Amino acid sequence: MANVIFAILFYLATLAFVVGLLYRISVYARTPAPLKIPTTPAPTTKGGVVLRMAREVVLFESLFKSNLWIWSMSWLFHASLALVILRHLRYFTEPVWGWVVLIQPFGLYAGLTMFLGLCALWVRRLFVERIRYISTPSDHLMLVLLIAIAVSGLLMQFVAHTDVIAVKNFFQGWMRLNIQSLPADVLLFAHLFLVFSLMAIFPISKLLHAPGVFFSPTRNQTDNPRDKRHIVGWAKQMESEPGK
Amino acid sequence: MSVEITAPAYRVIPIIPVLKPGAMEGKGPFVANDKINEAIGFPGQLVEDWHDRAIAKMGELLSKYRSLKVFMDACVHCGACSDKCHYFIGTQDPKNMPVARQDLMRSVYRRYFTLPGKLFPKLVGARDLTREVLDEWYNYFHQCSECRRCSVFCPYGIDTAEVTMAAREILDSVGYGQKYSNEIIGKVHKIGNNLGLPGPALVDTLEGLEEDVKDATGIDVRFPIDVKGAEVLLITPSADFFAEPHIDSLIGYAKVFHATGTSWTLSSMASEAGNFGMFIGNYEQLRKIALRIREAALELGVKRIVVGECGHAWRVAYSFWNTLSGVGEGADSSDKFAQLLQKQLDHRYKQPMHICEFTWDLIERNALSFDKEMNDKHIITFHDSCNVARGSRMGDFAGGQFDIPRNIIKAVANHFVDMSPETIRERTFCCGGGGGLLTDDLMELRVKGALPRMEVLQQVVDEHGVNFMATICAICKAQFTKMMPIYGFDRRMVGGVHQLVSNAIKLGNK
């Protein structure tokens, strides 16, 4: 029974995640940016913009300029999370891709560093006066959710092993609409439920910062306003109005 | 009635200030009256159905500006920006933290435009748009100078200036405008410039200037106006025509034109580089004010458009003019509106060009000569103006807006020293008076907002004996002239880059 519930929940969460995210991205993509507003100094070429965006997304360049503490904690968390997610690809690929095998040992420790980064971020949110001031309950809950995901995962890894072969079997089946059994393990249930929740709220929460950064005009625009006229539809329309 | 405003104490170690909630509550600027608002097409006073109209306007802006849409969604409350605003540093009011300022609007966005905010407002910090919230908007969105310093540090590039502009646009649309900015916009349409200097008075002023320069140098430096067929149209902030120290830079531009025999002209129709349409975030006003320059250029038949020392004006000119009025290059061949002007302009030169680019180009080509000793009484530092630093460029490479003015100073003077690296170039602090806040009814805010700049100025004064802070913005010049005495400096310590050029340039044998 549990396997059916979790399979359905996972389908629903995936649907919410994919459809919600695609919808948000399409809204961002369709909304015009009428004025050139890159935060300068900005790259003067498209290639330069790609590099700026890459530095922003991979290295958190602006955050680095802001404050080394936030930068180190959040970079640690995000890099660890990336490794952890990639490591989990082993449940969805058969045979497991070579590079996923390769990062497997790092992925294990990344779970720990992810947990540490999250705790540090939460401590900061709780104890630095001005950060506490700007925090909403959902900001705290988001960290709690991520910490709970990390802890349940780590416990299965290092304390109470679950039957990973069976788990893999479940996901392999899930991908083919063929629901297999799932180990009756409370930690596993908790872990999966929390991850599904995270996926479902992704497109309606501040997690939108992930796609958002790519659409941020201050970061993705080329600094060439004098060389190329930039004009969007609703602004161009004004020029054809009589008397203008 | 006037209260003595004193400078806040310098921070011993410039660390993050302790929060003082409510410190700047109710300290916003004067509200515009019916006449001022209606003159530029806004409702005279707060309309009855302000709530619905404000929310509708917000929805409209969210669909017209990707910046606003993305910025409302993307913030994670990380706090990277929280200690970066000069107004927060100076006032310690937590609502002057960039993130908290944005949240004044984001909380409303979440309530009306997001699912979680509709279902669980408390959980995600969503609020109804009440009269109290609207007043809070008016108060705190007029304590932001749209300087973009926070946007440098935000991992998603969220620019509070964009949020402030949207908020002011919404406020104007329901009849809750700011007196200072809206009054000035009225003047620019009615008279041609922000200071309300009519054409004949302007002509008189320029004639007087010619006499002054003749008396001082013995040379006939001209200040032409409305000359058809001139090569260069100079668009400069109207403060340059009579305010101190601005006028000394205007003399500097005229001397540069004179020394190189450039034919140039001012325009009485477009006797203002400033564009307060940006400050209130209203595209129609921004465009309408920019179109005056297009009209003047077409009418006078000029080949080049050069912009004087003005911060936000240069941002508008550099970043927006091509979009708004076609002053620039690279319009599609089918784009008749822009082509009309672009065909007239000489594209061997950047259009528009900053006066510093103009002068530096001549210096590089050895077309100007200087007597640097004439500036030896000055030990000079340079204050990067926020809108030039973070919203524009000069020259052909990213960062030219920092190097070119400094290069000019070094070419015309012997003593130059930079202030603390954390406070110059793209990390520069706003003077405290930008973004439509250069008004006496915001004096307390202006004094407190100047604190971070004054602290580091004090350092170079103590360590290097700096006695002159050059800057290329009319607002910076006016603001610092007021702030210097309050912080114990000489008011004449601030001046323009072209003031230094003016001191040193050799005119005689050219």
Strand order of the largest sheet of chain B: 2-1-3-4
CATH superfamily of chain A: Transmembrane di-heme cytochromes, Chain C
Helix-strand pattern of chain A? HHHHHHHHHHHH
Overall form of chain B: globular
User: Percent helix among the residues of chain A?
Assistant: over 70%
By oligomeric state, this entry counts as: heterodimer
Describe the structure.
The complex is a heterodimer of chains A (244) and B (510). Chain A is mainly alpha-helical. Chain A has twelve helices and no strands. Chain A has a single domain, classed as Fumarate Reductase Cytochrome B subunit. With 510 residues, chain B is mainly alpha-helical. In chain B, the strands form two sheets. In chain B, strands 2-1-3-4 form a four-stranded parallel beta sheet. Chain B has a three-stranded parallel beta sheet with strand order 5-6-7, with helices on both faces. In chain B, β6, α22 and β7 form a beta-alpha-beta unit. In chain B, α2 crosses α3 (66-74), α12 packs across α23 and α19 runs parallel beside α23. Chain B starts with 33 loop residues before the first helix and ends in a 6-residue tail after the last helix. Chains A and B meet through α1, α3, α6, α7 and α10 of A and α2, α3, α5, α8 and α14 of B.
Present the secondary structure layout.
The complex is a heterodimer of chains A (244) and B (510).
Chain A: H1 2-30, H2 46-59, H3 61-66, H4 68-87, H5 98-127, H6 129-134, H7 137-158, H8 164-175, H9 186-201, H10 209-215, H11 217-220, H12 233-240
Chain B: H1 34-39, H2 50-64, H3 66-74, H4 86-91, H5 98-113, H6 115-119, H7 131-140, H8 149-153, H9 160-173, H10 179-190, H11 199-217, E1 232-235, H12 246-259, E2 264-265, H13 276-279, H14 283-300, E3 304-307, H15 311-325, H16 336-342, E4 353-354, H17 355-364, E5 380-382, H18 386-391, H19 400-412, H20 443-449, H21 451-464, E6 468-471, H22 474-486, E7 494-496, H23 497-504
Helix pairs in contact in B: 2-3, 2-9, 5-9, 12-23, 14-15, 17-19, 19-23
